[in-house]
Design a protein that fits this description.
Layout: H1 6-15, E1 28-31, E2 44-47, H2 49-59, H3 62-71, H4 76-82, H5 114-126, H6 132-144, H7 165-177, H8 181-188
Antiparallel strand pairs: 1-2
């Protein structure tokens, strides 16, 4: 279980299974004091996704509201209206009219050491590991739909979305080529290398 979901495990150990709502969605575990690092059982409570949204909205935690609204699959125009005219902590910048902290500040290049320059060059080379010919073959292979040994394909993930074949294919071949899943996805969708 990932580190970010240990509080769910703590809740289950102390209070039993997390209940589900009428739509079959598992309740969300909420930290009463707002501190996600305080995983004391007395600080944890299970709320339906709607109750969780309302609690964060009441507190003015609009960033959390946006994340919960996305899990609820609310329309984008509703999600964008949640934060209208409010400071957006960590999501989407700040409200209009707020002066930039970088205004008038000249930003230059970093003064890297020789070791830093070598590391930067190596990083740039890693991003271009797949040649144009390999990219064409990879895209053809994707359209041939080979079996990918990934049990997650077709299952619903924690974010409520299905784990697609494209994602499984990208995950598998990212390990084969030593590049990111996003890079493989961009190749098979024709965004990178093959146009």
């Amino acid at each position: 279980m990932s580190r970010s979901y240990t509080y769910r495990k703590i809740y289950e150990q102390n209070f039993g299974p997390i209940p589900k709502d009428e739509e079959g969605r598992t309740y969300e575990v909420h930290h009463k004091d707002g501190n996600r690092l305080n995983n004391d059982p007395s600080n944890l409570v299970a709320l339906s996704i709607k109750e969780h949204y309302e609690e964060h909205y009441r507190r003015g935690d609009y960033g959390a509201c946006v994340m919960i609204a996305k899990r609820m699959s609310l329309p984008p125009n509703y999600i964008s209206s949640i934060q209208k005219g409010v400071r957006r902590p960590g999501i989407g910048g700040v409200k209009k009219g707020t002066p930039s902290k970088f205004k008038g500040v000249k930003r230059g290049k970093l003064n890297l050491t020789e070791e830093g320059k070598k590391s930067q060059n190596a990083s740039r080379k890693r991003n271009n590991k797949i040649s144009d010919d390999e990219a064409i073959k990879l895209r053809e292979l994707y359209y041939a739909r080979p079996d990918i040994d990934d049990l997650r394909i077709g299952k619903i993930m924690r974010n409520g979305r299905a784990y697609t074949y494209e994602r499984g294919f990208s995950s598998y071949f990212s390990k084969v080529y030593g590049v990111s899943e996003q890079y493989i996805y961009r190749i098979i969708k024709g965004i990178s290398k093959v146009v």
